[in-house]
Amino acid sequence: MALSKMEDFKFDGKERIPVDYVKGIMQTIPTCNIWDQIWNFQAKSDDLLIATYPKAGTTWTQEIVDLIQNEGDVDKSQRAPTYIRFPFIEWIVPSMRSGLEQAKQMPSPRTLKTHLPIQLLPPSFLEKNCKIIYVARNPKDNMVSYYHFQRMNKALPAPGTWEEYFESFLAGKVCWGSWHDHVKGWWKAKDQHRIVYLFYEDLKKNPKQEIQKLAEFIGKNLDHEVLDKILHHTSFDVMKQNSMANYSSIPTEIMNHSVSPFMRKGTVGDWKNHFTVAQNERFDEDYKKKMADSSLTFHFQFS
Question: InterPro entries given for it (predicted)?
Fold first, then answer.
């Protein structure tokens, strides 16, 4: 399915935005329609890019990065909602400004966001040697979080039942493609480029240490007092109440928080409340095959 122009689809929240494929990766029609512009996006050498698979701790990382850049000044991080502060380069919802437009209008140095797998990343980011922060989350929790996100976010396809979604996710038939290919692709790229690769589970277990790591990568030398302040303001409970970070300012016809809150649990191991024994066995078998060619390891729960 392809529509000739984005205007052919008017988004009113009654229907979901249709999807198509870009080089084998599922994307919404509006993104597919301007793919050439996205691919040819011109990064600047002082751009900082936050890259993740959807629902891998993106918003959390954005908030940490913003507070690092502003040396713990909470008022500055309250200047605008997350989606205004960090242009989402490939995202476009009819009736809202596209990430490309936002990025082009933003003064340097820019901090940008993407969910693109490495093979679809606009080449200028790597050509300009931009700093890139990648965050990966264990696939079981990632799947559960993405499922609930698709339930509440009408700008993405309806996920179907949990059983149906489980199959779609394993097959990589979700927007931004296969989780396995995504995390492996970026893992492989990290040795050739200025990429710091973080894990959601490490951020949960040792947040201060990971925030320190990010600050060093960004080039900020922060004292313990500032780090503690950032730690507090980026805790799940504080962020859940932060209207500039919890996506509550997005119109309800796009994101309906009564279906599932954007910031739902933010825990490690919630997959155990969703996976059946049979699904877990099947997932583990599939994971073993797909991850056999990678040195990546994930924590699926805390002991």
Answer: P-loop_NTPase, Sulfotransferase_dom
Q: Name 11's bridge partners.
A: none
Q: Which CATH number belongs to the domain containing residue 38 in this structure? A: 3.40.50.300
| Contact yes or no for 44/125 (Cβ under 8 A) | no
Instruction: Give me 259's structure tokens.
Output: 């279906």
Active site residues: 115
Give per-residue pLDDT as tens, 28-75. Answer: 999 999 999 999 999 999 999 999 999 999 989 999 999 999 999 888
User: Per-residue pLDDT tens for 149-165?
Assistant: 888 788 888 899 999 99
Domain assignment present for residue 301? The answer is no
Residue 5 lies in a domain: no
**How is residue 184 written in tokens?**
């492996």
Cα gap 165→183, rounded to integer Å: 20
Strand, coil or helix: 192: coil
Instruction: Give the span between the Cα atoms of 64 and 85, in whole angstroms.
Output: 13
